[in-house]
Amino acid sequence: MTTAQPHSYAAHAKATLALGLPLIGSHLAQMMLHVTDTVMLGWYGVTELASVVLGASMFFIVFILGSGFAQAVMPMVAQALGRGEEVQVRRDTRMGLWLSILFGVLCYPVFWWSEALLLALGQKPDVSLLAQDYMRIAGLGMIPALLVMTLKSYLSALERTQVVLWITLAAVGLNVLINWMLIFGNWGAPELGVRGAAIASVLVQLASFLGLALYAHLLPALRRFLLFQRFWRPDWQAFGQVFRLGWPIGLTGLAEGSLFQASALMMGWIGTMELAAHGIALEVTALAFMVHMGLSNAATIRIGRAAGRNDARHLRDAAKVAMGLSFLFGLSMVALFLTLPAAIVALFLDLNDPQAPAIIAFGTLLLALSALFQMVDAAQVMALGFLRGIHDTRVPMWLASISYWMVGIPVSYVLAFPLGLGGAGLWLGLTVGLTVAAVLLMARFWRRAPLAA
């Protein structure tokens, strides 16, 4: 593990990228699991694509809520290592795994009865039924998906980010192969459509968990943590600590995720074609967001280590450098979305489909609008990463909730419907909510940073 404590900005950048690049790669690969589902179902049919946009969005919202416990493991392990408390590393990670299993069991009824929920939210009956078919199967993958997230947090805090990247990349390849078999009925397999995509997702999540667990258990350098030794024994003190740090992280993610989920639901009120274009544009912007997320995770680890050592200078400089790297990447995405939007949207469609031109035209507009919120979206996720590094999660939860639920969603609705801007209004509302969050969260961190270590 890295023990150097660099103080020059160049050294900070090098250390951040050494941690962050594999995390960025793993986040992009994780997103590619969803992108491959979107692309392959886009080839299969527009209604099927729209149903999985809804189904995957709902799965993601529930996953984000539950992943707060997994994400809490990262700063907790980082600070424990900074203090030299290796036993605490095992205690925190194990209870993160416990909480992930418990959440996965409790949330499954949401997926089983999802059709009624989607119909109540104004979605079309044919799309809602297909989405339920998808989620009843995909929901079985919630537990392994959360366990994977917990082990990724544990290994990342230990600066074992390369294995996280390689296992996630292998998962993408496996997902493509199983999708090809089960969505379209190739190689003698049954043609299952959306159900095939759901089965593929569950199998890939199980395989990913097995790979990460074997690595964490068998690697000689990590055996001293005894992660799975007497796994069945409760540790209520660590359970409570992970829970208290994790539930605000989950609700913060829910607040942001619900902003985008609400936009998907409202886009569904406008039309199936618009919803399909929205899903594609959202996948593309989410891919860019994963880069910022990886840098944010790297910052959480480095700030957590600094906080554990009571090194205030290192803490603040690590945050400045991570923010600068994120800003530079955001500028490149703005340029890309403004220059090649149509070509990007076309990658997700069968161009022989008669609805393809309309989807490309609307998706082009949405990608151009997404350029407006690239920088503020980057700023808010970086600020959250900084704050988690110093174990500050409750106030950020309230700031995010206000920004997204009390500002972003209402503004999106007003712009889209009363003011008649339609889908463009929905995306302008996203920009407003993200801007408010970025300002409030960054202000919170820089007020607290001098006192954090």
Automatic annotation (TrEMBL):
Q: Does the keyword Cytoplasm apply?
A: no
Q: Which domain of life does this protein belong to? A: Bacteria
Record GO cellular component, one term: plasma membrane
- List, alphabetically, the CDD domains matched: MATE_NorM_like
Transmembrane residue ranges: 49-74, 95-114, 134-151, 163-185, 197-222, 242-270, 276-300, 321-349, 355-376, 397-419, 425-446
The Gene Ontology biological process annotation of the record reads:
monoatomic ion transport
Q: Where does this chain mainly localize?
A: membrane
Q: Name one Pfam family in it.
A: MatE
Q: Name one GO molecular function term.
A: xenobiotic transmembrane transporter activity
User: Any idea which UniProt keywords this protein has?
Assistant: Antiport, Cell membrane, Ion transport, Membrane, Transmembrane, Transmembrane helix, Transport
Q: Where in the cell is it found?
A: Cell inner membrane
Q: How does it sit in the membrane?
A: Multi-pass membrane protein
Protein name, per record: Multidrug-efflux transporter
Q: What is the lineage of its organism?
A: Bacteria, Pseudomonadati, Pseudomonadota, Alphaproteobacteria, Rhodobacterales
